[in-house]
Write a structure and sequence with these properties.
Largest sheet: 4 strands, mixed
Number of helices: 11
Strand content: 5-15%
Radius of gyration: 22 Å
Number of strands: 10
Bound molecules: flavin-adenine dinucleotide
Helix content: 40-55%
Shape: globular
Order of helices and strands: HHHHHHEEEEEEEEHEEHHHH
């Protein structure tokens, strides 16, 4: 049983078992073939599973009740996110995958009714996908103030010009939310950018390529796009929130987003741990002498179990802090879980691969998929080093002579 079970209501416990049973019955048996094969060719099968999830009333668990969801708290959804993380397809099947979940949360709070009707509704129902274009190849993404993409007002339109990359899941998406500079002269650099929704059938938008990740180009949802906006004209009513509010909205988008990612990583750790233990007790070095009898392997298993439990407690506590006091007040905790859990993820995956020997680096198990695609965990949502600086500076504040 999870070491945070005391935080979960009996209703949510029942829900967690339903999600687990769904994954075991319908998703684990197909996931290897799907994620190492052509994602596009699996879309009909994935749609069938999404329809089944809808019939079983498990679809889009993160949505508020007013939008047809379950109205779960962040802590409750965090528990579900861990279970869904145990499969690379989990979040996708239930329509709570990044980057769509972040866009849904953002639009729910800040988009106009017209944008909600046209884009948010279909997104929540899983009829379309979206992406988020902020990072630029020419500038350090770690410093979000440093952007070149411009959205200049021309009559009732914005005209957007810029070059973005790592726009995850752009291939096949219906729209993107782009972060662009709308007020380059503003003396406050945090008030220069805005978020604008761009439909991707716009002639001024181009997907240049899906960027290969350690040899895997990917496609459709499982891809990271390099994209260009060239005199891309959209009506000013496509603005999300107010002009100049881009950074405020980005922070709003990232607070709960880090909880979702961290719990997904813990789900991956649990699955990798399960695979590691199964391999340890079945792989014989000599007849009757298994890997599990070796102390090094036992140390890896014990240390992994302890790190996973510590991670879960920290993330659940952070989710609770966000709910009680808001993302701003929980800033230190959010930074702490980001670098702590991504590091646990890397360590646990690496140990699981090592225990599998050569098998661990083949595509016969999920481990190599995760090792390749989750290495980014230490980079996206703010590189770990930036979060460590945030935490350390905050701790050191009280030691400063000038305080
Ligand atoms: C898998 C994946 C998915 C992504 N999806 C999206 C997406 O959907 N949309 C989007 O807009 N972007 C996305 N990104 C981009 C991501 O947000 C950026 O990669 C991230 O912000 C880092 O920016 P950068 O790559 O330009 O690295 P840089 O800013 O160039 O930093 C390089 C390295 O320098 C170090 N560093 C940086 N700052 C500091 C500091 N202050 N102190 C010490 N060391 C530091 C870190 O080690 C960092 O990794 C994604 C990235 C990945 C890997």
């Amino acid at each position: 049983m999870s070491n945070t079970a005391f935080l979960i209501s009996p209703n949510t416990k029942e829900l967690l078992s339903q999600y687990k049973a769904f994954l075991e019955k319908h998703v684990y048996p197909i996931e290897n073939e799907d994620i190492y094969g052509s994602f596009k060719s699996y879309l009909p099968k994935l749609k069938e599973l999404r329809d089944l999830a809808k019939r079983e009333k498990l679809f889009a668990p993160h949505l508020p009740k007013s939008d047809g969801g379950m109205g779960l708290s962040l802590v409750e959804f965090a528990g579900i996110s861990e279970i869904l993380g145990s499969s690379p397809l989990g979040h996708y099947i239930f329509n709570c995958q990044a980057p769509d979940i972040g866009n849904m949360e953002l639009m729910h709070q800040f988009a106009s009714k017209a944008l909600k009707d046209k884009y948010l509704g279909p997104l929540q129902r899983g009829e379309i996908r979206s992406c988020f274009a902020m990072t630029e190849p020419a500038h350090a993404g770690s410093n979000p103030k440093h952007l070149s993409t411009l959205a200049i007002r021309d009559g009732d339109d914005y005209v957007i010009n810029g070059h973005k990359w790592f726009t995850s899941s752009a291939d096949g998406a219906a729209f993107t939310i782009v972060m662009a500079i709308t007020d380059p002269q503003n003396p406050n650099p945090y008030q220069r950018a805005s978020m604008i929704l761009v439909p991707l059938d716009n002639p001024g938008y181009k997907l240049i390529r899906n960027i290969p990740i350690m040899g895997d180009v990917g496609e459709d949802y499982m891809s990271h796009g390099e994209v260009k906006f060239t005199d891309c004209r959209v009506h000013m009513s496509n603005l999300i929130g107010n002009e100049g509010q881009g950074f405020v909205l980005a922070q709003e988008r990232l607070g709960p987003g880090r909880i979702h990612h961290c719990m997904r990583w813990i789900g991956i750790c649990e699955r990798a741990m399960d695979m590691m233990c199964k391999r340890a007790v079945s792989r014989e070095l000599d007849p009757g002498k298994t890997l599990a009898m070796q102390q090094t392997i036992q140390n890896w298993i014990a240390e992994s179990a302890a790190s996973i439990k510590a991670s879960r407690l920290m993330v659940m506590n952070t989710a609770h802090q966000i709910e009680q006091y808001g993302a701003k007040a929980a800033k230190e905790d959010i930074s702490t879980i980001k670098f702590f859990v991504s590091d646990v993820l890397m360590t646990v995956l690496d140990r699981a691969i090592q225990v599998h020997g050569a098998l661990g680096i083949t595509d016969d198990t999920l481990l190599s998929f995760w090792y390749r695609h989750e290495r980014g965990a230490r980079i996206y949502d703010g590189p770990d080093e930036v979060h460590k600086s945030v935490l350390a500076r905050s701790i050191l504040k009280s030691y400063s002579k000038h305080e």
